[in-house]
Amino acid sequence: MSLFIRKVRTSSGATAVQIVDKRGGTRRIVAHLGSAHDDVELAVLMQAARERLNEGQGELDLGLDTAVQTSPGRARVVATASQVLWDVLVDAYRFLGFDVLRDEAFMKLVLART
Q1: Which residue(s) pair with 19 in the sheet?
Q2: Whole-number Å distance between alpha carbons of 61 and 73
Q3: Closest alpha carbon to 6 in 25, 40, 31
Q4: Is 55 helix (H, G, I), strand (E, B) or coil?
Q5: Per the confidence metrics, is the pTM higher than 0.70?
Q6: Would you say 3 and 20 are in contact if contact means Cβ atoms under 8 Å apart?
Q7: 76 contact partners, CB below 8 Å, separation of at least 6
Q8: DSSP label of 14
Q9: CA-to-CA distance for 6 and 35, rounded, in angstroms?
Q10: Which residue from 44, 40, 20 is spatially nearest to 32, judged by alpha carbons?
Q11: How do residues 8-55 score in pLDDT, each as one tens digit?
């Protein structure tokens, strides 16, 4: 199921907010949350749609110290690392025998597509 939020202009000029399911090129309206006549109403409907779309998805407790946050309720990403993933992909590339090509650009292209 591929759910997403859609905004559609109605014949009356309002903006309808819907949750839509798309399968095989066919769209099916799962929920119509309402029609907004101004930006405030649209923002409220979009927030309600996001909450409904993410319903039941709790937050993962990462055990981070909340005192280290940059602003109230906002964490700051200082770095990301995927070295372990990259190492696994390189090992699989070598295991399959592609390393005999000795072409680093090709290897990175192949691994980026996986």
Answers
A1: 5, 31
A2: 14
A3: 31
A4: coil
A5: no
A6: yes
A7: 69, 70
A8: -
A9: 12
A10: 20
A11: 999 999 999 999 999 888 999 999 999 999 999 999 999 999 988 888
